[in-house]
Specification:
single chain; binds zinc ion; 35% strand; 2 domains; two-stranded antiparallel sheet; 172 residues; elongated; six-stranded mixed sheet
């Protein structure tokens, strides 16, 4: 979505729409799929700049960090940004912002493209560790079986025989 900032004066610009983003565009292997993204928000004049507020709702299918099984996670996130239009030339006077915990986005033209903002937010919403369930047992290190389904696989076979030979050598 591209919003012309020069058209926003007294009245905030509001939207409520559904966007499709391909999971591949996030370039993260653990993200297998994305549902359509429900996006609503507003852009209004602020001093300085514009205030961009949005709410996103969607589902992401992630590969479990331990067993690699795909599982879907619902995501809801909010954004609150100040958008400043800054000429590309270096300016002499620094723009002073009042102390605030709001994020600031500087753009060069007065057309705001929301796609990079959306992509960045989607990337932030990918958890560091995505488990299919909190106690996921992961994959068997010997045969690769899913230990959630075969908890006893390879029982007793604690060490690969080749490593065992190495151990015997060290002990010998
Ligand atoms: Zn898992
Ligand atoms: Zn096994």
């Amino acid at each position: 979505m591209r919003i012309r900032l020069d058209l926003i004066e007294e009245e905030p610009f509001r939207w409520n729409e559904t966007e499709s983003i391909a999971a591949e565009s996030l370039a993260r292997l653990e993200v297998i799929g994305l549902t359509e993204i429900e996006s609503s928000g507003s852009l209004e004049r602020a001093h300085p700049g514009y205030r961009f507020q949005a709410r996103l709702q969607y589902g992401q299918t992630l590969a479990c960090s331990r067993c690699l099984k795909p599982h879907e996670v619902e995501v809801e996130s909010r954004l609150d940004l100040i958008v400043l239009v800054q000429p590309p030339e270096p300016t002499s006077g620094e723009i002073q912002l009042e102390a605030s915990e709001l994020g600031v986005l500087a753009i060069e033209s007065d057309i705001l493209d929301t796609e990079p903002i959306l992509l960045e937010q989607l990337a932030l919403n990918i958890p560091m560790s995505a488990l299919c369930r909190p106690d996921c047992a992961g994959l068997c290190p010997y045969c690769g079986a899913d230990r959630n389904e075969q908890p006893d696989c390879c029982d007793g076979q604690e060490i690969d025989p080749r490593w065992q030979a190495l151990n015997d050598l060290k002990l010998g």
